[in-house]
Amino acid sequence: MEGNLVIVESPAKAKTIQKFLGDGYVVKSSFGHIRDLQDNKLSVDVEHGFKPEYVIPADKKKVVADLKKAAAQAETVWLASDEDREGEAISWHLSETLGLDSARTRRIVFHEITKDAIQHAIRNPREIDLNLVNAQQARRVLDRLVGFELSPILWRKIQRGLSAGRVQSVALRLVVEREKEIIAFDSTPYYKVEGMFEAGGTKVRGVLDTRFNDAAAARAFLDDSAGASYTIASIDKKEATRHPAPPFTTSTLQQEAARKLHFPVSLTMRVAQSLYERGLITYMRTDSTNLSSLALNASRKYICENFGEAYSHTRQYHTHSKGAQEAHEAIRPTYIGNTSIEGTAQEQKLYSLIWKRTLASQMEDARILNTSMKVASDRRSEKFNIQAAEVLFDGFLKLYIEGSDDESQDDGNTVLPTLSAGESIRALSIDAEGKFSQPPYRYSEATLVKKLEELGIGRPSTYAPTISTLTTGRGYLVKSDIAGRKVPVTNFRLKDGKVVESAGSETIGAERGKLMPQEIGMIVSDYLVENFPGIMDYDFTANVEKDFDSIAEGKMVWNALISEFYGGFHRKVEETLSNGQYSHVEKVLGTDPSDGKTVVAKFGQYGAYVQKGEGDDRQSASLAKGQLIENLTLEDALELFRLPRTAGQIDGTDVIVTKGRFGPYIKFGEKNVSIPRGTDPLTISLEACAELIRKADSAPAANQVLREFPDSGISIINGRYGPYLKHDGKNYKLPRNCDAATLSEEDCRKIVETQTPTSPKYRRRKK
After folding, report:
1. What is the pTM of this model?
2. pLDDT, tens digit, for every residue of 230-278?
3. d(CA 591, CA 512)
């Protein structure tokens, strides 16, 4: 035996580490976990201490065989998986599966892939931490028990193909409850009054300190204000200090990348993983805001050289999150001096965000002079408030400003001229605009992550797969833009002593890129809350996370935790399965004035739909994307019955726009052509239909192989719903907006390594 074998999780990480270690080492990849619980079985021995029954998946058997061979030939095997619980479990599985000799096996960890970090890890090996392994096993087993016992209930009581999960279902509940708040919200009208004033040659905007409930009161205020004189009643100046945000943790990186770069959480994690494996940033799964002394010194040096010593403020942030001991540092660049990197546009953007946030955290506070001024009228008692801000010293603001989740936040402050109390100020115009109170904001991916973290639910590393399961996986949630509804209002303007009335509109509930529950998500959440309140309780989920931390610290036996939970849970599952109660959703909407038939909203085998009439003459139509039974009106339902419609004729053949199980489509003779998302089937023109039909005629046939890479066993196939990747009998979705024709073999390998294969579609057997 000779040489050293280093085993890591991914080929990209192996490539980077091999570069640092040189010829005396062989670095190989396990391609993630080499064994796991079976997909289609519980794989937990409930009768014998909840022992997991691990198997080697078919696609990992060749990997295991290669690693066994390499390990047998090596003098020393170095297990170099990630430093968190999941990484520790991977090392343990490798040790167990490969039958590694403990005398020849070393466990090494590092939070950044640099030459110094790797060499330091080699000099300081340790044993596998079984407490961390047990914490990971506890999570895996508990989640498997919850998922495998709840999901069959949903199949039987609601609809086949559904799933539930300890974190997944609670996250769903958050979104559903927010939607119910929005549905129940009663928007009330009011009038907001703003004045444009001129002071010292500067135009400034002030907001009246009173809102009016109706148009008459707003009009009366403007009538009374005609010809009024205005003076500065008071001026209040206060100097404030703004502190920089801490360096990124996993959660805050997900949130900020969503706010500033509009990255979905899953994309952020995928790009961050790539940056880490290339040795460009530290480990990206961390709860810690700590920075090493090396990073602190490098940051200070860069700031002093490029901004000046006045901008430097070395500080260490303390992490308040339980479990932050798993990772040593916050997410930061491995080399502070690297202000930019080579890579994809997404990698460059995310790296720049991480670099700026890290540097800004070590810069001086900003000093702001906030001025609040009240303007009084000689005609009315109400006063206008004028707010302004002046940056006295920009500090960290010179480099970085943290994003905000407050969609109403306005950073457009104005620097005022030198003014004093009692001084006259001229009103240029006064506007009274009709407004409506807005419902609570829906969750975006970023704000949902923030809420989950605040409640202690799940781990930042699990948020991306959780959101993915709820959206693309199960369709419980959909990420979409909400147009809101426009309401006519009457606005008023006072200018040159005259009040002018004008018609306008106010939009209520408009939002972009928010998570909305689909009807099936509402039904699943309500059913689980009613029947399994303990599992759906926010405190239960958070307390379980604390228990996992205790296991990781060696303070709790993992299977004792599972045993304590399982008894009562399993009894409740059996009780629920045996009762005759099923989820039933039905809402009478009214009668169609044209024919007097009753219109009812229901939930059936293929989702939510509306039905008009009974028996042989009944009509039905599926609800549109974003529509819910809970707030569906009769008018909404009648619109759905406008399909099918005939858009016109092409060469004497009718072009029929209709809707099926999988969405709206065009029927042209024997051809069925899908209508793209975002296109309204009720208004699509004949010309647009003709273009879609033409494109469908020229598209590759279904199941046609578009590209093949025989060495990798990878094919790109044109499927029913577009191109997809096939490898080792499994199907993988292609990234959004990717061109299948230009994908390289390396691109395809990366998709296989980083994505979970798509689940098979279950069909009900015909009896």
Report:
1. 0.80
2. 999 999 999 999 999 999 999 999 999 999 999 999 999 999 999 999 9
3. 34
Q: Which of 431, 452, 434 is nearest to 443 (CA)?
A: 452
CATH number at residue 541: 1.10.460.10
Query: Which of 686, 651, 638 has its CA nearest to residue 666?
Result: 686
Tokens of 188: 């009330």
Range of the domain at 342: 250-360
Q: Residue type for 54, please?
A: Y
Q: How many structural domains compose the chain?
A: 6
Q: Which residue has the tokens 């293929």?
A: 606
What is residue 750's three-state secondary structure? helix
Please tell me the distance from the alpha carbon of residue 704 to that of residue 700, in angstroms, as a whole number: 7
- Phi, psi dihedrals of residue 639, rounded to the nearest 5°: -60, -35
Handedness of CA 349, 353, 354, 360 (dihedral sign): positive
Q: Are residues 122 and 105 in the same domain?
A: yes
Cis before 152? omega within 30: no
Closest CA to 268 of 332, 168, 330, 351: 351
Read off the amino acid at residue 659: K
| All residues at 6 or more sequence positions from 183 whose CB lies less than 8 Å from its CB, including other chains | 628, 630, 631
Contact in structure between 398 and 307 (CB atoms under 8 Å): yes
Q: Helices marked H in 278-331 — which ranges?
A: 293-306
Residue 521: partners with Cβ closer than 8 Å, 6 or more residues away: 172, 175, 176, 470, 474, 475, 476, 477
Per-residue model confidence as pLDDT tens digits over 342-361: 999 999 999 999 999 999 99
Tokens of 426: 């001229």
Q: How far apart are CA 392 and CA 238, in angstroms?
A: 12
> Cα–Cα distance between 610 and 633 in angstroms, integer?
11
Q: What is the residue whose two structure tokens read 């009024």? A: 228
Q: Nearest 5 degrees, angle CA 462-CA 466-CA 468? A: 120
Residues 119 and 40 in one domain: yes
Residue 237 is given by DSSP the state E
Rounded-to-5 percentages of helix, strand, coil across the chain: 35, 25, 35
Contacts of 558 (CB under 8 A, 6+ apart): 134, 135, 137, 138, 141, 551
From the CB of residue 332, how many other CB atoms can be counted at a distance below 10 Å? 24
Write out pLDDT tens, residues 578-612: 987 788 888 899 999 988 999 999 888 778 889 99
Tell whether 203 and 313 lie within a shared domain.
no
Q: Phi, psi at residue 478, to the nearest 5°? A: -135, 140
Which of 108, 128, 148 finishes a domain? 128
| Coil, helix or strand at residue 687 | helix
- What are the structure tokens assigned to 244, written together? 């920089």
CB 280 within 8 A of CB 333: yes
Answer positive or negative: Cα dihedral of 438, 442, 447, 452: positive
At residue 575, what are phi and psi to the nearest 5 degrees? Answer: -65, -45
Condensed to tens digits (0 to 9), the pLDDT of residues 701-711 reads 667 788 888 87
* CA separation for the pair 510, 517 (Å, rounded): 16
Going by C-alpha positions, the residue among 611, 598, 274, 218 that lies closest to residue 433 is: 218
208 and 257 share a domain? no
CB 111 within 8 A of CB 282: yes
- Cβ-count burial of 725 within 10 angstroms (0-12 exposed, 13-18 middle, 19+ buried)? buried
**DSSP per-residue string spanning 610-678:** EEESSGGG-EEEEPPTT--GGG--HHHHHHHTT-SEEEEEETTEEEEEEEETTEEEEEETTEEEEPPTT
Q: Which residues are catalytic?
A: 283
Angle (deg, nearest 10), helices 115-123 and 11-21: 80
Residues 500 and 534 in one domain: yes
Angle at the Cα of 588 from the Cα atoms of 585 and 591, rounded to 5 degrees: 155
The list of the chain residues with pLDDT below 70 reads: 1-2, 319-327, 404-415, 661, 700-702, 759-767
Give me 418's structure tokens: 């030198």
